[in-house]
Amino acid sequence: MVRQLGFSDVVSNCGNQIWFLWGPDVRCQVLDDHEQILHVRLESNKWPKLLFVTAVYAKCDTIERRAHLDALRAVSVGVSPWIVGGGFNTVLSSDERSGGSAPSGIAMSDFHDAIADCALVDVGFVGSPYTWYSRHLRQRLDWVLISSCWMTVFLKMQVAHLELSQSDHRGLLVEAECTVEWKVSSFCFQHMWTTHSEFLGVVRRNWQYPTIGSGMMRLQQKLTRLKHCLKVWNKTVFGNMFDNVAAVERGLKETDEAYDQDPCDRTLMESNRCPAELVRVQKRRFRGTIFGIQHEGEYLTYSIAIKDSATSFFQRFLTAEPVFPEEMDSKHLEDGLTDEDRRSLCVMPTLEEVREAVFSIDPDSVAGPDGFGAVFFHTFWEIEDFRVSK
């Protein structure tokens, strides 16, 4: 049966209730075999790091479930990236239950504490909000949880609650796309640069170099030159952001180990705030990922297909033959413009009008094709050496 399903090998836990199957290009090692969990380590050329996977089949009784929650805490030490999934047989809040009596507050508290202790994050889902059904009761009892490091390896990930079939539980389909091939990103002006003490001097020195031509041609030359300068400066001052994230994660691990030895140390408690902010940033980036797009009646979910769809759409849009409306009979239009109105339309806008237009743009708005957003011009508009009006 394993071969028929397209897998090469299988292992089950000691209770024979959790089955884990993998393909020929994956190496699997069982690290912990528990009555309610099966914890394995996966290695493959398809992803850049060792992956840790824990499958859960929890007991129905609250007291008995605590054994598997303690087992999760035990295997959580030193594992990253880590994904946990399966039937937890409990909800996290009353909103995840419909019908019947109120859920057990003790069970929800136990589950919440275990997730926090293991530093796991709920991935979310698409589909029905409930995964288990009885005649008068519906609950979300099946979960997929991940560590913050998992999001750095699999930036694009989605969990789908499948349709009911032979079981009273919905199946969970996890789709993850590895971000192993990092591409050089295009230039984008960063807000954080404006807070650095050296930044103003870097921009001013670069801006004073001579250019040819006049007007917008000079501005374009200055922006292009400054773009290359800021790329080098950013790498020198702020370094590689991915290396910075890895360093913070190592610090988090060291802090956790020290905190276990002395949980009353207030300095360690304060140092936990930075990693917590890192997790929040990763979650925001994760939520901003495009998981699917509708294209010509077909719903695309793979990154390459989504990219190709966007490319083909704009290629057709930008290369299509222009469609001109039929000539309009001007005699039906009322000429409401005075001679003064016509003259004003030909007058160059004043510097104050240009400034008002620039500052009306939200500083957090998306930057244009050159990578310089409104915050750049807001920051340097009043500086004499920078003035665009020149």
Automatic annotation (TrEMBL):
Tell me which domain of life the UniProt entry assigns to the organism this sequence originates from.
Answer: Eukaryota
Kindly give the SUPFAM superfamilies that the UniProt entry links to this protein: DNase I-like
Q: Which InterPro entries match?
A: Endo/exonu/phosph_ase_sf
Q: Which PANTHER family match?
A: BNAC02G09200D PROTEIN, ENDONUCLEASE_EXONUCLEASE_PHOSPHATASE DOMAIN-CONTAINING PROTEIN
Q: What is this protein called?
A: Reverse transcriptase
List the source organism: Sesamum angustifolium
Phylogenetic classification of the source organism: Eukaryota, Viridiplantae, Streptophyta, Embryophyta, Tracheophyta
